[in-house]
């Protein structure tokens, strides 16, 4: 039997994922639910090194399949070193981005194909799919405007992609919502943050109750 729940957050850049994750952590703390929160590459040395290559602004020559393979490699290391041990110890794991990011960004927006990208990721994740994925939906214009306002956040290579690309990423997430209706739940992230969190809380509580009653 599974020892705990694996919950991922997805969404276009600037959708408020980091703030929502902090709110989830506070909520779980308050309710005495053992958890960890992480993000790829999550401070895992090997995964960080791989990620540095992907996000380096110098690497404009990077082939899109190379990018997808590197994301999968970084994901694998973070999963093996961080996520699986935490789940085995009975922690609920909240992860900022996982395989769906690769499916939406590399598979759909970069047009490698979602099935192809899923195939290399299956090798990387060995069946560790999330129990619940919260997709924070927002129009790319609004998301990017939020990023521009937040001066502390470093703008990376992918942030600089054109709006078209971000619109395609969003379409990619919509495809995923159709493909995995039970696992992925869409949340309107254009609302006020406390209202967004109400939706998040409801979905997480439902999942926890379902898990405990199994
Ligand atoms: P990240 O560092 O998680 O930034 P944020 O979530 O704050 O936007 O991700 C950096 C970029 O990498 C982001 O634009 C999404 C992209 N990305 C992919 O293209 N594929 C992937 O598999 C992942 C995990 C991220």
TrEMBL record:
One of its GO terms (biological process) is dTTP biosynthetic process. The keyword Glycoprotein does not apply. It is an enzyme of class 2 (transferase). ATP binds at residues 11-18. Gene3D superfamilies: P-loop containing nucleotide triphosphate hydrolases. Residues 9-199 form the Thymidylate kinase-like domain. Pfam families: Thymidylate_kin. Its EC number is 2.7.4.9. One of its GO terms (molecular function) is ATP binding. GO terms for cellular component: cytosol. It catalyses: dTMP + ATP = dTDP + ADP. Keywords: ATP-binding, Kinase, Nucleotide biosynthesis, Nucleotide-binding, Transferase. Belongs to the thymidylate kinase family. Phosphorylation of dTMP to form dTDP in both de novo and salvage pathways of dTTP synthesis. This is Thymidylate kinase. It comes from Clostridium bovifaecis. The lineage of its organism: Bacteria, Bacillati, Bacillota, Clostridia, Eubacteriales. The gene is tmk.
